[in-house]
Structure formats: structure tokens, C-alpha cells
Amino acid sequence: MYQLIRKFLFNFDAEKVHHFSMSALKLICQWSLTRKWLTAWMKPLNNKVVKIWGIEFPNVVGLAAGFDKNASYLRELQALGFGAVEIGTVTPLGQPGNEKPRIFRLPKDKALINRMGFNNEGVKAVVARLKDWRAEQESINSKNRSQIKLIIGGNIGKNKVTPNEEAWRDYEICFRELLNTLITL
Length: 185
Known about the structure:
This protein is an alpha/beta fold. A hairpin with a 2-residue loop joins strand 1 (about 50) and strand 2 (about 55). The strands form three sheets. A three-stranded parallel β-sheet has the order 3-4-7. It has helices at about 1-10, 15-30, 30-40, 75-80, 125-145, 165-180; strands at about 50, 55, 60-65, 85-90, 105, 110-115, 150-155.
């Protein structure tokens, strides 16, 4: 089944397929019954809690930055079985990123070249989305206290228009905004 779906999706632009796939997943996870089914189906086989640096991860499966730049798919990624998700790269101001095309498939190598250029909605939009996600999680967890939350990390960067000498300010803005939000998640 996977090979058939993959072959079909590889006929289309990689970036458009990413957005299409995640929108479809968001639709599936919109209803609690289908989200619970997906969560049970995608649960990692060795689903052991792991404690690293005093942080309890629900499992060892994590997703690096670049996939969910704007914290738009946290519920969906959690349903897919991820125990940790690194959002971003987040910049102080939203920016479109590099010119398209900017994702290139290397099918023989089973790889992808990403030249996105830190396209994101900006730190304020991401923080608002994180707060909404936290409210949803608190509602769910009030019914099931044994459920461990998804661990969220943040990757930060400077805006493309920021001169390198001023980059530290962009990092500081994003660090403070995300720290104040993520530490309370």
C-alpha cells in the first residue's frame, strides 16, 4: 500500500504533497474517534517512557525541526506516535523563505534536499498556536492524567533581512518568546 501511495504522490511537487498530506491528516485527526484509532495504530512497538536530563519523553521517537515550522500539526504528529517534536525554524517576523522550487527529491538515495530558507509565520503566531495546543492538551489530560504530553522543542533563527551583526537580537527575541511558552507546556 505504501509503495502505491508513494508512487502516486511522487508525481507531484514535494512541497505541495507535504501540505496536502498534512491537511488530510489534520482532517482525520479532527474527530476524536479517528484520532484515537490512528494513535493506537501508530503507537511505537517499544513504547517505553525515557527520561533524559530530567525530562520524561513518552517514547524515543522524535521529529527534528523543519517539518512543522509553525507548530501547526502537533496533535497530528502526536497521533502518529512521535514522543517529541522540534518546531521551527522560527524567526521573529514571518517570512516566505526561498524561491520555489526549494525541495528536491533524491529517490534513489531515499533522501530529500531542503532549501526552504526558514519560511515561517513568525514567533508571535507560533506562540499563539502553542498556547492553543496547550489548552487542548489540558482539556484532554484532565480526563486522562496518565497520558504523558508530547515534548516540544524549538529551533530558532534570524530573519533573512537581519544583518549578521544584528542576528543575536533575532535569536534573543525568539529564545525569550519560546522559552516563556515552552517551559509552561
